[in-house]
Amino acid sequence: MATLKYSRLLGTSLLCGILAGAPATAADLVVIVSARNPVATLRADQVAAIFLGQSVRFPDGTEAVPFDLRVGAPMRDEFYARVTNKTPALMKAHWSKMVFTGRGQPPSELADSAAVRRKVADDPEAIGYIERSALDASVHTVLVVQ
Asked: The pTM is what?
């Protein structure tokens, strides 16, 4: 009995230690637009449609130009997994089909959250995703990625 309690305590302690050192979580990812963009909030399905090339407009009718992080960036993979339910392989297949059929081009890629924030801040039509810690007054959050 005492051994079982010790094992559970040890397991719980190890799990807490692992989680304490875990990388950024989905709560640390936010979808942003320029502070000059009137869009206040977006639903995950609306963001997914924009980033999958299924919609080129915000709900108010203005053009939406998405910006991505580079292929292979862990935050990019997490964003697509959480917002579109697609793996990197499925995203590659999606864009191969879209380009081949002439229905769209993938979003332009930028190096990191700071580059995405700068690009989005400069263009009211732009939309991107960054780490919450990279936010500043030049952009505002339209979706917290869950």
From this structure: 0.81
